[in-house]
Amino acid sequence: MARYLAGRITGLVLILFLVCLFTYLIFFKLSPDPALMICGKTCTPERVTQIRTVLGIDKPFLTQFWDFLSGLFAGRDYGSGTNLVHCPAPCLGYSFQTNQSVWQMVLDRLPVTATLAIGAATLWLLAGITMGLLSAVKEGTWWDRSAMNLALGGASIPNYVLALALQYVLVVKLQILPFPSSVAFTDAPWLWFQSYLMPWIVLATGAACLYARLTRANVIDTLAENFFRTARSKGLAPVLTMRRHALRPALTPIVTIFGMDFAALLGGALITETVFGLNGIGKMAADSIAKNDQPVIMAVTLLAAFFVVVGNVVVDLVYTALDPRVRIR
Questions:
Q1: CA gap 199, 113 in Å, rounded
Q2: How far apart are CA 186 and CA 112, in angstroms?
Q3: What are the structural domains of the chain?
Q4: Is 238 exposed, middle or buried (0-12, 13-18, 19+ CB in 10 A)?
Q5: pTM of the entire structure?
Q6: Which Gene3D superfamilies has this protein been placed in (predicted)?
């Protein structure tokens, strides 16, 4: 187990290093001049040169990349003299358009995105696995056909269409829910729940439908296995048989998808956050793309990659708890 963890952590560090390298290469070498993007259309050559010096992009590429990596652990300075700007560790960059450290911008918006991700993931897991399990047990019945048709329809609805429809019906017409806002749970728990309910539903609908169909297919395959028939022939309680011998092996592919989906969602739900006006990481990325704020865009890209890579490692560890046939050697 220790050797496995050491190997996985070593691989994680190597992958993150390569992600940092290629992301930095794309944003600061293969893209248009960042200094010109920051300066805008009405900009003098002297001003562009000054911005390049402040950003440090007038140095050789390897020196730039080393400054970026060292800034993650020790912080870094931009400019000199009266124009000196200090970016504390972990320094993902500095946005001169907002005059803020990118890491601080991420921290300010991460609670909103984390709230969306955790709430939506809870909904789609409960709804998707329950619907898929019931459909598998009642295979071929009216419930099975209705649930799978509903799942197919739900997975076909784009997020922005569902978001706009829910807002029109629940907020404008029926006035059941308030318009979503970034309310802290400690300030007003009930308003917090009402504000995030629609975004949770929008993010969870498509995933729940996909998980329902996948769970149904996996459980049906498991029910046909010899070990499941043996467990039933021993006289075990039906609920215990389904939980231990049918659902657990069927959840292995679900864990794989869930790890990737949840990790990607932590990187920002761009469409949902933008439609509902929630100031999370996804909306920050959309605003930064519109303003060509490259340090912020690169930071969001690295953050999303970090969550996906770490999610992969966590998924591998969860496998052994779900399926005893999987062994870490």
A1: 11
A2: 13
A3: 32-91 (no CATH), 103-322 (1.10.3720.10)
A4: exposed
A5: 0.84
A6: MetI-like
